[in-house]
Design a protein that fits this description.
With 357 residues, the protein is mainly α. The protein has one domain. The model has no long low-confidence stretch (mean pLDDT 91).
Amino acid sequence: MKQEKDLDIELMRILAVFFVIFNHTQKYGFQLFSAYWPFDVRFVIYGFLSVFCKFSVPLFYMIFGALMLNRQPEPYAKLLRRVGKMAALVFCWSAFYFAVDVKSGEEPPSLSVFFLRLYESDCNFSFWYLYSYLALLMTLPLLQKFAQGLSDRDFCYLFGLFFLFSCLIPTGEFFLGQGRHTLNPRLSPDWLFTGTVIYPMLGYFLRHRLRNFWTGKRVALLWLCDVGLILLSVLMTGLRVWQTGDTLAQAFHNTFVCVNAAAVFVGCQHLFDRAVPPRWAKNILLSLGSSSLGIYLLHIFFMFKIGTLENCFWLYRLCRLNGMLSTLAYCLAVLLMGYGAAQILRKIPGLKFLVRG
């Protein structure tokens, strides 16, 4: 019997892929705050959105941890098949984007160049996540044993260390010395704080150890803390711009992203723990959520290969929306185009794996 998908997970996927798209809107959305003087109202509002959107990739890792780390480690033969399937997906999509670049004259028609791109970096600037996902899959059985072997107190100690070294200390260094004096890096256990370790562990912990902890008041308090920390990040960004003149400063966009991603994760989880959506809403969530990988893989094609970000201006002129609202509408349009293309690919024999992973 096929297991029914969790609606909260599908909503998380939709939100994550939407804000991945927004993260790539450059000066039309993600960097729009840089067009205004620090602490102008528009700088704060647009900077808030710019910082907020950074939860997307950590949330994808958390979803992986929530769904995979509670399972018993699978046989290595099955794991290798899973890794091979993902590697084939990366290869096929890289070949597609390389062919598009060859046709546009951005790359030479050379197999050696393609394989070098594939080996050394990637053939699409957004595919770094797929490479990190492959690394995550290869270490899955180790992470499963690690997560399941920790007590709740161990998890609290782990996340406390992470918050101290990744959030509090960088913030203190900025306010006390403008970052001129930094902690000796050998003192920080950074190997434990990589995104492919800490965020799957956080997703597992919130899903399987702390799920019953969250009441409405506690979720509201978490979101209040999240909003406050995002505003603190915007404040630090504004001060950095003021000090250096670097209008594109993003040094603090990820400082408190762990709290941001946790708030989105817990908020979605709490929503569906206490509410049952109507059937039509459930069907939309399931359909869009199951296409999130395809949307992620295709959004660069629609944004940069057959279209341009200047389409945001077209929406601005046609709908008389302001710059940010035009960009958000554009992101929704890209998401829907990616969804439509993914649905078509899923119906073509032999190509379903390209959008389902």
